[in-house]
Amino acid sequence: MNVLIVGLGLMGGAYAYKLLNEGYTVYGSDVNKLSVEFAIDNGFVSEGSTEPEELIKKSDLIVLAIYPQAIMDFLTKYKDLFTDKQVITDICGVKSSFINAAEETALPARYVSHHPMAGREKVGIGFSAEVEFAGANFLITTTANSNNDAIEVLKKIGKDLGFGRISVIDVEKHDRMIGFTSQLTHAIAVSLVNSDHDKDTKKFIGDSYRDLTRIAKINENLWSELFLENKDYLLEHIQSFENELDKLKNALKNNDKEALKELFRSSTKIRKEMDK
Predict the structure, then answer these.
(1) Which residues lie closer than 8 Å to 192 by C-beta, 6 or more apart?
(2) Rounded to two decimals, what is the model's pTM?
(3) What is the CATH number that goes with domain 2-170?
(4) Distance set, CA 150 to CA 87, 178, 245 (Å)
(5) pLDDT tens-place string over residues 118-152
């Protein structure tokens, strides 16, 4: 299968690197010439270019590893090159804001979106080889118009990349759940780090702080787009989190040890269920 990766950043580079090693013919395109040169020089792609026209024409699968607002620009610009033999997908962390327009614009190509639940807090293709997919979740997000053959192509890609669990879910559920499991956790990490005003904090850091705040080292360009594209769901989850934090705060104000213990028992039970 000939695969074109559009966007040779951290995740696009990781896809290119791992798929080429799985026997695919992988092409790469990026507006950044240095990223394309890195991909070619380090064996991430068989061929690369800042101008993707010729690569589009000979690709069976096109993976858009670019920012949400750039997806429609790409599809609109190159729509006359797409064919009914091609599958187009994106790895974007939010879907609802553009997916219907993407499906319509990519015709006659078969457009089905997906989301790899993996990555690192670093930025750029230079760190792509460090990205680990083994055991991670691979979410294929569908609409009523999604093509079954295209879904099967993505299932194979997920398997060959080494993902542990491949799920097919509808776009709305994806965005609601990602607003909670990914975006809210990033919001909490950012807020926790930004609430620190003591220059000696680093002398007191242990595992709990490190684990909670690793993702506070964040790509501001990408995540500001993701937050705004999914703001309705994210605001809903932030409100729910604030409600739970208020319960804990009130228990402290009232010296209510039993209320605290009940909150701890509840979180322990819920978290243990997730491990099963």
Answers:
(1) 212, 213, 216
(2) 0.87
(3) 3.40.50.720
(4) 6, 23, 43
(5) 877 778 999 998 899 999 999 999 999 999 999 99
